[in-house]
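thought: fold this chain, then report.
action: predict
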Amino acid sequence: MIEVKNITKSFDGKTILHDVSARFETGKTNLIIGQSGSGKTVLVKSLVGLIRPEKGEILYDGRDLMKMDTNQIKDLRKEIGMLFQGSALFDSETVLGNVMFPLTMFTSMTPAEIKDRAQFCLERVKLKGADSKYPSEISGGMQKRVAIARAIALNPRYLFCDEPNSGLDPRTSIVIDELLSDITHEYNITTIINTHDMNSVLGIGENIIFINKGHREWVGDMHQIYQTSNEALNEFVFANDLFQKVRAYVISNASDRQLK
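observation:
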């Protein structure tokens, strides 16, 4: 579990995060949502140590990132997997080479062990047989799955995903969502997803943190979000006409069940 307690961050005298507290649960898909400029990216960068808040605590299973020295932070980052928005694959490396990279850099495994582990991770994301292809030879969805395989290669305890469905079609986005959810539960990872994708929010949002103008305004799950009275959250999540109709349908059915 990662717990944030009362963190505040400012830039050039402007406060971006106002005394934010949140819990990111182990074995759950934790989603951070909010409009552009709301502070959610600053929150994620603070969580991984790229930005240092002026005050507060960032606890990784009780270990305070804010009190760690450089070596301790390096050790902690070995427990963290990262899935970047653009996949960030090496164009000059094969699919297998991309997944082997962190194992070669950060472990003392033998070449044979590294290859076996990388192939296992590729099989886990349903990319068996794609070892020798290059990123330019596979689809965007497959590239994202390669990036997930690379992110889990080191058996991370914590997995950060930045807009994992960016640039993907709706069907492929669902595949990526389901894969992240499955991996989170299977390996009991603390997964944190920074997203604008409302399909992800309503499909895999087990713990949703809504950031609005630098404040944590709401916390709940994909079921509770239909019933929220938070106007800013409703405007953000249900801005699309289809989502408004879905919300109205869910609320209507819930009322009918209560009457019965």
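thought: worth noting. The mean pLDDT is 90.
final: tokens above.
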